[in-house]
C-alpha cells in the first residue's frame, strides 16, 4: 500500500493507480475506502469498466460492520422498501433515473446532466396531475427496472441542493434507502403503452437495450432517450477511447430501438439526424428539441469561498476540468493578461468543476506557474447555494469548449444577469442567444481581446449588461418539464417498426456477436446486440458473449422478399476446455422446425456447423439448438427472419462467428470472420 500511495503522490491523476489502490482496500476488507478509490478512478476515467464493475459488485453486497459507524445511528436500522403505486394507461411516463442514482453513489453536488435530470423529474412530479409519472432505476444484477418512491427521489434532490458533503448522515441514509429499493423491490411491470424516458446516459449499463427490447415486445413500451450531445462521435480526441467505443455502440443500437428522440438543442438534433441517417437512411425517427434554456432563481443565503470574501474581483468558469473544456486556453489567456497589465489589474479566475478526462496539460501549467496559482482558483464539490453566490458576485462568466450539446452554465449566467463570454460554435450560440459575447473558437488572441474589453472597458461591459437586463429571462424548469411531457405524448401517437424489423440482413453477411470497436457507429454494432432474444444471455464482451441457463434465442431478420427454397447456415464454434456434446437446430417461423443435429466436440476444438432450412416466403425463420451446455458464435443470413435457440433449462450455450455450437459448462461466444448464410 505504501508503494501505491507513493505512486499516487507522484501521479495523482493516473486512474489506474486509484483502481489498484481500490483493489488493495477490497482485499483488506476495507470496503468504504475501496469504494472511494473506485469512484476516484471513474472521475478520472469515466470509461473504466473495471472500476464500474467493482463499484456495482460492492454495492450489491451488504456493507461490512464498519460501514454504519461512519453515519452513526441513522444507519443501524434496516431500510424498509416503500411500496410504489405505478401509473396506469398508455400516456404514462416512466423516468429512468439510473444514471443519476449511479452518480449519487459517489457524488452529491450535481453537474450539468445530473442537474437537468433532477430539475425535470422534480417538476414533472410537482405538476398538477403527476399521476401519470413514475421514477424507475435499473437493477443491473437482475436486468430489470425497479420503481422508486417519488418522496424518496424528492428527498434526494433536496439534499443534493443543500450541500456537497457525501459523508452527511442524512445523505447516506437516503442513499441506503435507494439501494434497499433497487435490491429488494419487485421488478417493474410497465403499463401497456407507457413511455420510458431516459434523461441521462445508459451506454455504461450492461445489456440495457436488450431489456428495453424485451419490454417493447411484452408491453408495447415506448423507448425515448434524451440526447445531450454527440460529442464522442464529433470530437473523439477529447474523450477516452473506451467512452468513444461505448457511445458508438449505444448510438447504433438506439437507432434500432428508439420510438422517438429528444434533443437539448437544434444543434444536437441536427447532429443526431446526420449520424442516424448515415446508419439507416430509410428510417425517420421522430426527433424533438427541448431547449435547456432554463434556470430557476439562484439559491440565496450562500456565502462565497473564504479566498473571495475580501471583495477581490473575479471571473467565473463553471465546467468539468477536462480536455474538451480547454482550460489550457483560458489559463494561457490569463497569463497573457497578467504579463500585459500586471497581476493587480487582472481579476482572478475561479474555475468550478471536478477533474475529468485529459486535464493534465492545463493542471500541469497551473502547478508550474506561480502567477497562475495566485490568480486562478480551482474549486470542486461546490453546493448549489455557494454556486449561486459565485454567480452573483462575479464580474462576468467564461465558458470554453471544443464542442457543446447545450452549455447549461451559459444559461445560468444569463439567469444571474451576468454576461457570458463563449466561443462562437455549436449549441453555444443557442444557449448564449444575443446576450453573450462571442470569441473565435480556440483563438487565444481573440479571447484575450474580448477579455480586455470586458475587464478594462467598463462601458462595454455595462452596455452588454444593459442588453441582458432587457432580454427575456431563461425559462423555469417547470416549463421545460411541461414541454417534454407534451412532446412525449405527441411521440406516443406513432409507432416505429420493432428493432429487428429495422434491419435488412443479406445472404452472405457475417454478424459478430461481440462488442465491436468505434469510433464510428455501425449497423454491425447494433446487429450484435439485437439478434439476441430472451433473458438467458450474459452481456456482450470484446471476444463474444456467454449464454445463461435457460433458452437462448437468436433471431436473424432477413428480407421479406426472400424466395422460397433452401437456406444453408454456417456456424463457427469453439469448444470449452473439456469435451462436450450438444444438439442444435434451425427453422423458419411459420414452417416446420428443423431436426436437432447431434454434435460432439473435443476440448478446445474449433469446428463449423452447417444447418439447412427450408425458406418459407413471407414467414419468419427460427433457429433452435439444444446444447448440453454453452457455446460461442456469430450468425449470418438472409430471409424474413431467423432465430437460434439453446436447449433445456440449466444448460448453457455460447456462439462464435456465424456458427452455433454448445458445450457443457462452457460460457461464451467468440467472433470469427468465417460464417455466412447462402442459398443452397
Description:
The protein is 36% helix and 18% strand. With 680 residues, it is α/β, with parallel strands linked by helices. It has four domains: 2-64, Serine Threonine Protein Phosphatase 5, Tetratricopeptide repeat; 93-289, Rossmann fold (3-Layer(aba) Sandwich); 306-473, Glycogen Phosphorylase B (Rossmann fold); 503-679. The strands form eight sheets. Strands 3-2-1-4-5-6-7 form a seven-stranded mixed beta sheet, with helices on both faces. A three-stranded parallel beta sheet has the order 8-9-10. A three-stranded parallel beta sheet has the order 11-12-13. Helix 3 runs antiparallel to helix 4 (49-60). It is globular. The termini are far apart. The model is unreliable at 59-79 and 618-680 (pLDDT under 50).
Q: What's the number of domains?
A: 4
CATH structural fold name of the largest domain: Rossmann fold
Helix content: 25-40%
Give the terminus-to-terminus CA distance: 63 Å
Figure out the total of helices: 22
Please mark out the parts with pLDDT under 50 across 5 or more consecutive residues, or reply none.
59-79, 618-680
Major beta sheet, strand line-up: 3-2-1-4-5-6-7
**CATH C-level of the largest domain:** Alpha Beta
Total number of strands: 27
Structural class: alpha/beta
Name of the CATH architecture of the largest domain: 3-Layer(aba) Sandwich
- Described by the principal axes of the CA atoms, the overall outline is globular
Mean pLDDT: 80
Amino acid at each position: 500500500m505504501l508503494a501505491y500511495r507513493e505512486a499516487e503522490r507522484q501521479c495523482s491523476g493516473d486512474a489506474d493507480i486509484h483502481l489498484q489502490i481500490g483493489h488493495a482496500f477490497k482485499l483488506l476488507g476495507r470496503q468504504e475506502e475501496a469504494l472511494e478509490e473506485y469512484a476516484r478512478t471513474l472521475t478520472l476515467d469515466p470509461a473504466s469498466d473495471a472500476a464500474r464493475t467493482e463499484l456495482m459488485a460492492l454495492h450489491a453486497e451488504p456493507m461490512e460492520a464498519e460501514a454504519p459507524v461512519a453515519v452513526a445511528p441513522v444507519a443501524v436500522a434496516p431500510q424498509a422498501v416503500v411500496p410504489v403505486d405505478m401509473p396506469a394507461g398508455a400516456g404514462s411516463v416512466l423516468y429512468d433515473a439510473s444514471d443519476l442514482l449511479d452518480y449519487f453513489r459517489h457524488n452529491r453536488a450535481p453537474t450539468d446532466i445530473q442537474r437537468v435530470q433532477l430539475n425535470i423529474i422534480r417538476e414533472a412530479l410537482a405538476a398538477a396531475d403527476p399521476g401519470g409519472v413514475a421514477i424507475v432505476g435499473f437493477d443491473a444484477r437482475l436486468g430489470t427496472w425497479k420503481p422508486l418512491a417519488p418522496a424518496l427521489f424528492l428527498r434526494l434532490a433536496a439534499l443534493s441542493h443543500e450541500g456537497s458533503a457525501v459523508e452527511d448522515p442524512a445523505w447516506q441514509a437516503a442513499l441506503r434507502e435507494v439501494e434497499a429499493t433497487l435490491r429488494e423491490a419487485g421488478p417493474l411491470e410497465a403499463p401497456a403503452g407507457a413511455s420510458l424516458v431516459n434523461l441521462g446516459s445508459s451506454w455504461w449499463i450492461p445489456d440495457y437495450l436488450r431489456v428495453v427490447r424485451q419490454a417493447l415486445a411484452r408491453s408495447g413500451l415506448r423507448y425515448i432517450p434524451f440526447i445531450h450531445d454527440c460529442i464522442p462521435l464529433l470530437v473523439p480526441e477529447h474523450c477516452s477511447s473506451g467512452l468513444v467505443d461505448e457511445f458508438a455502440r449505444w448510438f447504433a443500437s438506439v437507432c434500432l430501438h428508439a420510438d422517438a428522440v429528444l434533443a437539448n438543442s437544434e444543434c444536437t438534433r441536427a447532429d443526431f439526424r446526420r449520424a442516424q441517417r448515415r446508419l439507416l437512411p430509410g428510417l425517420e425517427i421522430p426527433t424533438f428539441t427541448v431547449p435547456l434554456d432554463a434556470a430557476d432563481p439562484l439559491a440565496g443565503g450562500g456565502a462565497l469561498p473564504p479566498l473571495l470574501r475580501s471583495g477581490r474581483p473575479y471571473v467565473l468558469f463553471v465546467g468539468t476540468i477536462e480536455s474538451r473544456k480547454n482550460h489550457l486556453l483560458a489559463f494561457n489567456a490569463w497569463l497573457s493578461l497578467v504579463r500585459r497589465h500586471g497581476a493587480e489589474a487582472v481579476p482572478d479566475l475561479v474555475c468550478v468543476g471536478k477533474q475529468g478526462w485529459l486535464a493534465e496539460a492545463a493542471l500541469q501549467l497551473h502547478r508550474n506557474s506561480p502567477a497562475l496559482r495566485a490568480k486562478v482558483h480551482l474549486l470542486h464539490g461546490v453546493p448549489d447555494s455557494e454556486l449561486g453566490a459565485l454567480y452573483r458576485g462575479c464580474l462576468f462568466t467564461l465558458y470554453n469548449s471544443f464542442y457543446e450539446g447545450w452549455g447549461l452554465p451559459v444559461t445560468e449566467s444569463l439567469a444571474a444577469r451576468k454576461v457570458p463570454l463563449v466561443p462562437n460554435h455549436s449549441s453555444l450560440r443557442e444557449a448564449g442567444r444575443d446576450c453573450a459575447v462571442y470569441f473565435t473558437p480556440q483563438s487565444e488572441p481573440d479571447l484575450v481581446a474580448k477579455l480586455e474589453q470586458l475587464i478594462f472597458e467598463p462601458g462595454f461591459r455595462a452596455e452588454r449588461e444593459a442588453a441582458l437586463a432587457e432580454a427575456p429571462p431563461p425559462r423555469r424548469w417547470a416549463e421545460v418539464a411541461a414541454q417534454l411531457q407534451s412532446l412525449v405524448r405527441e411521440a406516443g401517437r406513432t409507432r416505429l417498426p420493432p428493432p429487428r424489423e429495422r434491419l435488412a440482413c443479406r445472404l452472405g453477411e457475417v454478424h459478430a456477436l461481440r462488442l465491436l470497436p468505434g469510433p464510428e457507429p455501425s449497423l454491425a454494432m447494433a446487429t450484435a446486440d439485437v439478434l439476441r432474444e430472451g433473458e438467458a444471455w450474459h452481456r456482450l464482451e470484446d471476444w463474444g458473449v456467454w449464454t445463461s441457463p435457460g433458452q437462448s434465442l437468436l433471431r436473424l431478420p432477413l428480407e421479406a422478399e426472400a424466395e422460397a427454397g433452401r437456406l444453408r447456415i454456417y456456424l463457427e464454434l469453439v469448444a470449452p476446455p473439456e469435451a462436450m456434446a450438444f444438439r442444435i437446430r434451425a427453422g423458419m417461423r411459420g414452417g416446420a422446425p428443423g431436426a436437432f443435429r447431434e454434435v460432439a466436440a473435443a476440448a478446445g476444438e474449433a469446428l463449423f456447423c452447417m444447418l439447412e432450412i427450408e425458406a418459407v416466403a413471407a414467414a419468419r425463420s427460427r433457429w433452435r439448438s439444444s446444447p448440453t451446455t454453452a457455446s460461442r458464435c456469430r450468425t449470418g443470413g438472409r430471409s424474413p427472419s431467423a432465430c437460434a435457440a439453446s436447449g433445456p433449462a440449466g444448460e448453457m450455450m455460447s456462439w462464435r462467428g456465424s456458427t452455433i455450437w454448445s458445450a457443457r459448462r462452457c460460457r461464451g461466444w467468440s467472433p470469427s470472420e468465417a460464417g455466412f448464410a447462402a442459398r443452397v
